[in-house]
Amino acid sequence: MTFPTFTSTQIDPRARGKELGTLRRRAILANLTGYSDLFAVAGATPAQVRAWGERALERSADWAPHLAEEIAGIAAGAGLEPWQVSVVNARTEILAAIDATGEGECSTSVVLPGSGRPPRTVQTWDWHDHLRDAPMLWELEPRPGHVVRTFTEAGALAKIGVNTAGLGVHFNILRHDSDSADIGVPVHLIARRILDDAATVEEAAGIARSATVSASTVITAVTASGAASIEISPAGVSVIPQGEDGVLQHCNHFLDPALAKGERHATDRPSTYARFQHLRAHTEALSSDDHTTRALAMLSHGPDDAPVCAHPDQTQPINQRWETVATIALDLPAARLRVHQGGPCQVTEATWQTF
Questions:
Q1: Does 233 lie in the same domain as 276?
Q2: 304 and 228, same structural domain?
Q3: Which residues form the signal peptide (predicted)?
Q4: How confident is the model at residue 102 (pLDDT cuts 50, 70, 90)?
């Protein structure tokens, strides 16, 4: 099993978006339907969702007009209104506005071994199981000669990815007391702009600081020479560098002491701490130069152990069902992604997709 791939041929943002929207129309419509169902179960009305989508598009246009143009192009190609594609890109912001809760989410590990050796990274990407068909792998050139490859969802501008400037990003959701319904720049657009424009961790952090947000997330930026988890919230942005041992790991709680005072996972999703401890306990295997070894080091199932590898409880409503949809490693020297469809418990040498 592999994820669908798409390679853009257009440089102009609107044209690039229209090409994607036209050729991936069915998947984008299915993703929009899946999110509409999720928002409804979580308590949002269609009128609220539209208003939030329109507001996210306005904030996006103010912050990065070319990305708003790309969203409009996707909409034109898919036969949708721009606000509908904006909803897909702003799903984190809409869920924060609803104050959605639930157990689950992603775990990320980065190890910089030093001596000129490339970073060793891996993450699980957990999401609601009814959206397991949403992901795709997308290659694009935001400008000639600069290639971005991203694991994302149909209609969303980016998520986890790499660029040919030597930078990659991992992506985990966070929740903070300052999250609000005053919709800001979607965090998925921040990830895309980092992939488009950044070659260093410092540049990535600067891009994150330039956006006014309404929801929290952590983007872990990685290069050959350094890494940092960029914790983003309406209360501020904090940069957590790798430790002296070259290790940087993150789950779904804030590591910055000041931002941690507004932490929401402490009561809503306490497994984030158990997952973080699992990563710390398996750092040696997570330091391996073999991506399969790193993925298998993430293998841990709840309830007896940390639920790093998640499987949905079908007795729960869709907003409370979580699945490890993908396991992803970054290959920075090659500017490629190694992607396995599913959780670590299904990983073998043969199940990786190189993109």
A1: yes
A2: yes
A3: none
A4: low
- Region 194-217: mean pLDDT is 98
- What does the DSSP assignment read for 132-166? TT-EEEEEEEEETTEEEEEEEETT-S-SEEEETTS
pTM: 0.96
- 343, 277: one domain: yes
* Domain at 194, CATH number: 3.60.60.10
Task: Verify that 157 and 240 share a domain, yes or no.
Answer: yes
Residues 37 and 164 in one domain: no
**In a shared domain, residues 125 and 172:** yes
Residue where a domain terminates, one of 52, 74, 98:
98
CA-to-CA dists, residue 25 to 29, 41, 288, angstroms = 6, 25, 39
CA-to-CA separations, 62 to 94, 101, 163, 171, 212, in angstroms, rounded: 19, 30, 25, 24, 10
| Strand ordering across the sheet containing 160-163 | 5-7, 135-143, 146-153, 160-163, 168-173, 217-222, 227-233, 236-241
Distance CA 253, CA 140 (A): 32
Helix (H) or strand (E) holding 268, with range, is: helix 265-268
Written as six digits, the tokens of 328 are 């992803």
Domain count, the chain: 2
Phi, psi of 220 (to 5 degrees): -90, 110
Residues 345 and 297 in one domain: yes
Could you say which DSSP state residue 287 is in? Answer: T
Quote the domain boundaries for residue 12. 5-98
The 10s digit of each residue's pLDDT in 21-68 is 999 999 999 999 999 999 999 999 999 999 999 999 999 999 999 999
Distance CA 153, CA 73 (A): 16
Is 63 in the same domain as 144?
A: no
Are 172 and 251 in contact, with CB atoms under 8 Å apart?
A: yes
267: confidence class by pLDDT, cuts 50, 70, 90 = low
What's 58's domain CATH number? 1.10.10
Residue 76 CA to chain centroid, in angstroms? Answer: 25
